[in-house]
Amino acid sequence: MTHTPSRRTVLLCAGTGAAALCAGCGGGGDDGDSSAASSGQELASTSDIPIAGGKVLTDQKIVVTQPKTGEFKAFSAVCTHQGCIVSDVRDGTIDCACHGSRFAAADGSVVRGPATKPLPGKEITVEGNSVRLA
Ligand code: FES
Hints:
Blueprint: E1 42-45, E2 54-57, E3 62-68, E4 71-76, E5 88-90, E6 93-95, E7 102-104, E8 110-112, E9 121-122, E10 124-127, E11 130-133
Antiparallel strand pairs: 1-11, 2-3, 3-4, 4-9, 5-6, 6-7, 7-8, 10-11
The structure holds FE2/S2 (inorganic) cluster (FES).
């Protein structure tokens, strides 16, 4: 009679300080679409913002306007119609090229549809030549 030594395979799952790899772990905290802009962040230089015009900051999804000399405003650049990023600021309006909506550069209100809701305002501060998120 022969005894064949049986081999036991023992899987040790001792978490002995090695990094616990978490491949495929769900529930990560990054929802992928949080605002790219954060408080205190410089958005633009005041000299970048034309009087009676503005500048669309595509990456930050913010549009900064200067309706009157030295008066700066900022709004979400996401059109309230169907979510395009507004394209331009001209003649006192923030314009969306997707379907032609226009918003007042002074307060974000709808000047021309199809959008029906204003662009939400963003709090900003102007320090020296810097326009920053408040
Ligand atoms: S998404 Fe801007 S007008 Fe339609």
